[in-house]
Every structure is written in structure tokens, then in C-alpha cells.
């Protein structure tokens, strides 16, 4: 194993604030789906994700064109979060690492402006 085998650190799992909020495990699966769909690089693509443990599911869709930030190619995305009868959206940003993998920089609740 070398340093290119690692894509980031794993934080301790915490409980969601309410039963309708994503758990850390849900967020981890959404991050994996985001990395997958960005790696594929297909136009107008979405990547589903699902956590059978919590019953949560959703999809991740890149939005807008890529841009450069701090010398890296980055891309924004939206992720849906569905659990029971509740649906919400999260917004995120990812940047391509020097090794070519996509690193999720942010993933938070989406608020309409």
C-alpha cells in the first residue's frame, strides 16, 4: 500500500439530530456515490446510493461545469436524501486529487437562496 490507496480519513459516527436527518453512515455512502459519478465523468449522470441499515437512500447528480480552485479541478453536486416519508437535499463540492481520485470537500444541507 502507498499513499495513493487512501482517499481520506473516517470520522467517528455520530447520531443524526432527528430521525429524518442523514446519519454519518448515510453521508459516507452519499460521498462514495458522489466520487463514483464524478469519476465516470458522464454528462447528465446520476449515481444512486442506499443504506439498508437506516433505510435511507438517494442519488447524487453533478451540477454545472467543472472549475479550478487552488489549482485543482473541482465540481459541485446535489445529493437527494430520502428516508421514510421525508425528502431533503444536500449540496456538495469535490476536487480531483493529484492522484486522480475525487475528494469530497463539503456535503451539507441545501438551502434555497
Helix count from the secondary structure assignment: 1
Q: Categorize the overall geometry.
A: globular
Q: Residue ranges: pLDDT <50 for 5 or more in a row?
A: 1-16
Q: Label the structural class.
A: alpha+beta
Strand order of the largest sheet: 1-2-3-4-5
Q: Name the assembly state.
A: single chain
**What is the average of the pLDDT values?**
85
* Rg of Cα set: 14 Å
Q: How many separate structural domains?
A: 1
Question: How many beta strands in the DSSP annotation?
Answer: 5
**How do the SSEs run, as a string of H and E?**
HEEEEE
State the end-to-end distance: 44 Å
What level of helicity do the residues show?
Answer: 10-25%
Characterize the largest beta sheet: strand count, sense, and whether it forms a barrel.
5 strands, antiparallel
Strand content: 35-45%
Features:
113 residues, alpha+beta, five-stranded antiparallel β-sheet, 15% helix, globular
Describe this structure in words.
- It is a single chain.
- 15% of the residues lie in helices and 44% in strands.
- The protein has one helix spanning 24-40; strands at 47-51, 56-69, 72-83, 86-96, 102-109.
- A 5-stranded antiparallel beta sheet has the order 1-2-3-4-5, covered by helices on one side.
Helices and strands in order, then pairings?
Blueprint: H1 24-40, E1 47-51, E2 56-69, E3 72-83, E4 86-96, E5 102-109
Antiparallel strand pairs: 1-2, 2-3, 3-4, 4-5
In short:
The protein is an alpha+beta fold and 113 residues long. It has one helix and five strands, in the order H-E-E-E-E-E.
Amino acid at each position: 500500500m502507498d499513499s495513493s490507496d487512501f482517499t481520506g480519513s473516517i470520522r467517528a459516527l455520530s447520531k443524526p439530530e432527528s430521525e429524518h436527518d442523514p446519519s454519518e453512515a448515510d453521508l459516507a455512502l452519499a460521498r462514495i456515490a458522489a466520487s463514483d459519478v464524478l469519476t465516470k465523468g458522464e454528462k447528465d449522470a446520476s449515481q444512486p446510493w442506499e443504506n439498508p441499515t437506516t433505510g435511507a437512500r438517494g442519488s447524487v447528480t453533478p451540477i454545472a461545469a467543472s472549475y479550478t480552485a487552488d489549482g485543482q479541478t473541482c465540481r459541485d453536486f446535489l445529493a437527494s436524501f430520502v428516508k421514510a416519508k421525508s425528502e431533503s437535499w444536500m449540496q456538495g463540492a469535490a476536487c480531483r486529487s493529484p492522484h486522480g481520485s475525487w475528494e469530497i470537500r463539503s456535503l451539507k444541507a441545501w438551502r434555497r437562496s
